[in-house]
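Re: duplicated header lines in exported structure tokens

Our pipeline writes sequence and tokens for each protein into one text file. With two proteins the header for the second block appears twice in some exports. Here is an export where it did not happen, for reference. First protein block:
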Amino acid sequence: MCTKYKIPTLALSRLLVRTQPKVSNVFSGRSYSKNVRLVCPYKENKYQRRESCGQTRVLGVSTLVAASVFGSFLNESKEEKLKKRIGMCTMHLHQAEPHLAQPHFQEAFELLKDDLSRKRDTPIPNLKIVYLIDQLGNIALQLECYREAIELYMATVNGFALNGIERSNRTVTELFLKIGQIYAILGEFKLAEMSFLHCVGVTTLELSRDDQPKNPKVITLAGLAYEGLGKLYLSMNHPENALNMYQHALQFADTIFQPDDPQIPVLLNDLATVYEALNDYDQALETVEKAISAAKLGNRAALPSIMCNKATILLFKGELETARNLYEELIETCKKIYDYETLREIKANMKILEEKEGLREMSN
């Protein structure tokens, strides 16, 4: 069974939080945080009035400030302009306004035109600019501008190289991890595989050294890389390879994460899906039960999705009545919590269930 690659949101957030501007240190995947509201202090005031009957219009404070900002923007350096555009993008993303963040993103992207298509005489960007390119890549990823995100991340890798930072550096490894995840979403599986394997190679080499203690950050990166490969091979319909990758990912997760870490049930649920793809339904059910227990401990938000996976395993195992009962119970739960994504998955699986029930009735 081939499944669509889904970006591991919880895993990716561990990387994105590292390079976000100070005003933005939360990434919530497909939905943006609605808890932050920024209010402009410049409002219309008593000195501002309409132009009529020969009266001269007096500009309000907000207009004067806007004119001042625009005038200074023309004389700003590239670094300052990028910071302002990135800041505006971050503010709008925090306010759940990606459509307002988009124009600022395009302006910032245009500023980096030379860095994205380097020529021999293009000046080498300093590290401050390189880190800003990385931040803009994170914004592109949140806006689902995947092609632009890849361009920005690759420009960041090149910028680090031009400043003497090797590809084995941990920051570069994190970039390749994000690049791999984006290529997987775009269906460019070979490029995704190469990116993930680069991460596995670098982290495995560092962890194999006996002359230094194992760095928890490197262990986390290794686990995320194996998880990415597992999702990738499952999407490519290579469950045998996916099984090996998920087993490695869970080993790293058990080493570095606490038992109540929200990523544990996600990994176990994916591993159950792999066993289902291998037609090992008993092992799949055993694993999904572990995922349910882990979710109750540290990630209750994932429970509907995991329970849906359990019902699907029961469906393909042939326990149709049990699967139907679980689906119907889940439908009510998902409606109460507005989990429309899981609802769509349940409805799709219910059609398969009805077909199997019809075939069973005909055979009887």
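Second protein block, exported in the same file:
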Amino acid sequence: IIDAGLNKCAEDMSSQIMSGDLDLKSMFVKTDVHPQKADESGIDWVVFADTLNFSFWMQESEPQYLVTYRGTTYNGYLALCAAINKSLDSGVELTKPEFFKSISEERLNELLMGDGGVPIPLLADRVKCLHEVGTVLCDKYGGKFTNLMAQCDNSAVKLLQMVLDNFTCFRDVSEFKGKTVSIHKRAQILVADLWCLFEGTGQGSFSDIHSLTMFADYRVPQSLQHYGVFQYDNELLEFLMKDVVMPNGHKYEVEIRGCSIHAVELLTAKIRKILDDKKCDAVVNSILVDQYLWGYRRKHAEEMKKFPFHKVRSIYY
């Protein structure tokens, strides 16, 4: 983690915030493929999407997972969102726990199928995740995530722990040099997406939302390399350039994800300091910084191709 790169990124983001070009709250803007209303169906949508919010990357030589919805073609996570909406528009209650707790692999494949007949990656794992989440919600919470949320006392940290306690498929934990490292990307993004859905009000008014970290994935590290925040040594670069698919829990994977979390915490602190010195009271937290960096990678997708990313097939991100 290079301090000069941290300063460059923090100064860039801070200047955009102060000029009005960047409103960090808009990083969680509801796009055309996200639910617009903070109601039970919106909550169902978020829970379903984040249960499946993992591993969308494809090798460049492979057909890509794309979904065209209402005239726009989406890739990656947004392709999943588009596929969900296509199913809902056709009258299928895909996001209802009562429906997806027993959905077959064949049916899910049909409903999430990409353009040109390209299936979503890790289909069998997605079915298992849906079965677990749907069954727990139906057996313990009357088939409604809102009933689980009602017990979290408007605490992001408590809701995060409840998600981890109830759903094993959200427990994103690895071992690194003899220590247990808890990253919990999907569990944290579920809480953050609910905060976004409610725009920080009502059931989503989590006063401790700043306690969450960034969502350690395989895309944000590309933005961190682009800004010069990350510098990979020759050993790591040579390994990544081989385009090897690593097993989940590989030391390189855990190190990159852990450093991503630390780097974003450092960035967030630097941005807050700059804005405080300039008497700017904009809301800044690691979630919003993460969303900026994730969006930055998508905006500069072609340019980012020169920065290798670690490839892991995993249900955790």
